[in-house]
Design a protein that fits this description.
The protein contains 7 helices and 17 strands. It is an alpha/beta fold. Strand 13 and strand 14 form a beta hairpin. The chain folds into 3 domains: 189 residues, HUPs (Rossmann fold); 53 residues, SH3 type barrels; 87 residues, Elongation Factor Tu (Ef-tu), domain 3 (Beta Barrel), CATH 2.40.30. Helix 1 runs parallel beside helix 2, helix 1 crosses helix 6 and helix 3 runs antiparallel to helix 4. Strands 12-15-14-13-16-17 form a 6-stranded antiparallel beta barrel. It has a 5-stranded parallel sheet with strand order 3-2-1-4-7, sandwiched between helices. It has a 4-stranded mixed sheet with strand order 9-8-11-10, with no helix packed on it.
């Protein structure tokens, strides 16, 4: 087959390319330039660019070396403007709204895979291959493509792919879906690839130090938008009584315990962020648990939007163990002018800790991805 290969400059995508090359496929490699580390936003206290192990110029160079070593053509797609519009700006706005976003989901499906898929179609490629630990299979009886978790559940990355459409899944190819990480490194070593021992990236590429609120401060300052910076306000308990003050809602997230500056006989956690009232609500551990939430922007992968409740195991963040729940399709979304995609109400069998607006939620039946959406506590979104 003729296959377009996403080359991140890491060991996973490098090993995927090596495996496909060994199988005799005709490859075309693509790397995406997404964020300018020299821009003066992702910097340390001295104004120096923070080192990043994802989507940096060094990664572009590493990807090119791998493509040259394996002997297939390689191209760089400059998507900096698209990345800022579709990933960075929504990330900032989500924090300013009192949410805790996970930009890597939107980046993987809406930007990286979507852009590469369009390029692949224009070049007549049969498949689009990436280094994700996930699997896709065609169900002939249902005439539908199905998405599954990688066999190595600890490395599974189906969480980042639930937004893919049936058309995109028809071209998706994940060569590493049935492998362990150790096997992937062995493939890279066997092909003598420069990236074989390269360490993995765990951080958001444009916030490599993990200090999200500081990034937002610098971003708004750089864009002359300091008037959008949230002001300080009250911290209240779940009864509404003031117990402290905060320095801006974008500095807090659901489940946070450290940095509250409140003396209490038992540990307190952020249990709610009220943007409209510009206040943080704190409570004890049991007040952090909830049994239901609303998901917006739902994409049903295993079947078309259902009319009846669906039983599934549901994740509310990447490292959350899927828990049994009933998913109720919300049929009144036409009443809301801001609801442009299916919504669902998820009710867990048992209370779950720190269900956080802005995070992605994924629905599973065993290893199969049934669908997914974006967590919101606002029933009108």
């Amino acid at each position: 087959m003729k296959i377009a290969v996403a080359m991140s400059g890491g060991v996973d995508s490098s090993a995927a390319a090596a495996l496909l090359k060994e199988q005799g496929h005709d490859l075309v490699g693509f790397t995406m330039q997404l964020w300018n580390q020299q821009r003066g936003i992702s910097v340390d206290e001295n104004g120096e660019p923070l080192p990043s192990r994802c989507c940096s110029l060094d990664d572009v160079y590493d990807a090119r070396r791998v493509a040259d070593s394996l002997g297939f053509p390689f191209y760089v797609l400059n998507l900096e403007k698209d990345f800022e519009r579709d990933v960075v700006e929504p990330f900032v706005q989500s924090y300013l709204s009192g949410e805790t976003p996970i930009p890597c989901v939107a980046c993987n499906s809406r930007l990286k895979f979507a852009s590469l898929d369009r390029m692949a179609v224009s070049l007549g490629c049969d498949k689009v291959a990436t280094g994700h630990f996930a699997r896709v299979e065609y169900d002939e009886s249902a005439d539908r493509y199905r998405l599954f978790r990688g066999l190595n559940h600890w490395k599974d990355q189906s969480y980042f792919l639930w937004e893919l459409t049936q058309d995109q899944l028809s071209r998706a190819y994940f060569p590493l879906g049935e492998m362990l990480k150790s096997e992937v490194r062995d493939i890279a070593r066997g092909a003598n690839l420069y990236t074989a021992e390269k360490q993995e990236s765990q951080e958001i590429c444009f916030v490599p130090d993990g200090k999200y609120s500081e990034f937002i401060d610098r971003y708004l300052d750089h864009e002359d938008r300091l008037d959008e910076m949230p002001a300080g306000g009250e911290i209240v308990n779940t009864a509404g009584a003031p117990v402290g003050t905060h320095t801006g809602i974008h500095r807090y997230t659901i489940g946070q315990r450290r940095g509250l500056g409140i003396a209490h006989e038992k540990p307190l956690y952020v249990v709610q962020i009220e943007r409209a009232k510009n206040r943080i609500v704190v409570g004890e551990a049991d007040e952090l648990e909830s049994v239901e939430f609303i998901a917006k922007g739902v994409n049903w992968v295993a079947f078309d939007e259902p009319s009846e409740p669906v039983r599934a195991e549901v994740k509310v963040r990447y490292r959350h163990d899927p828990s049994p729940a009933t998913i109720f399709p919300v049929e009144d979304r036409v009443k809301s002018p801001v609801a442009t995609a299916p919504r669902a109400r998820i009710v867990f069998d048992e209370p779950q800790r720190a269900i956080t607006p802005g995070q992605a939620t994924i629905f599973y039946k065993g290893d199969e991805v049934v669908g997914g959406g974006w967590i919101t506590l606002d029933r009108n979104k």
